[in-house]
Amino acid sequence: MEPMASQDIALAGRFFQESGANKRRSRTTARGQDLDQATVEAFTRRLCNLLDTEDFFGRHAALSNPEKIERLFLASPEDKTQSDFNCAVSPKVRLQVPLLFQAVAGVMEEKSGSIIQSAAEINGEGFGRALLYSGRIILVIKSLRAGFPFPFTSQEKAIRYGVSCVEEGLTFLEKYNHMTALHGSFSLEG
Fold first, then answer.
1. Per-position b or e across 95-120, b if 16+ CB within 10 A of its CB
2. How far apart are the C-alpha atoms of 85 and 126, rounded to whole Å?
3. For 33-188, which CATH superfamily applies?
4. How much is the pTM?
5. 162: closest CA among 56, 2, 46?
6. Would you give the DSSP letter of residue 145?
């Protein structure tokens, strides 16, 4: 084995050992997953800020953040059954996809200090993709098949999905920065 390859393996092993030692404040959800409370609050705030930008005349400005998410973001059960029945995506789902990933990108920017961009698209049949990237690095990529996991009808599920995307992207960014710290970003190409 080449010395550089064995050194990278040693660095990767040390990274996974160190990352397991970091503990965060968390709360347990109904499914037993731990969610970082600060990330949940940041994601909720970002999502509400994006919903406020869509509310041109400020009709919903007096609502609390959970009420805004409920009225302006979540799909009704009728929208969900309509999407399931005729394999067409409702307008609510077409609104949810880019907003959710823009909120995720904003939270990742706050936490990492890097510029994170999002690109999300979904067609009328529910097929699409969402990318979160920083420069040339793709941090999160999600494929949407028949709109799944959208439409979100529960605030808890939407927040859990958004926070999991944030954590996935930040974990990959930390790993990438750690692996390229010694030799630079060009060491991983080729």
1. bbbbbbbbbbbbbbebbbeeebebeb
2. 13
3. Protein of unknown function DUF269 (1.10.3100.20)
4. 0.75
5. 46
6. B
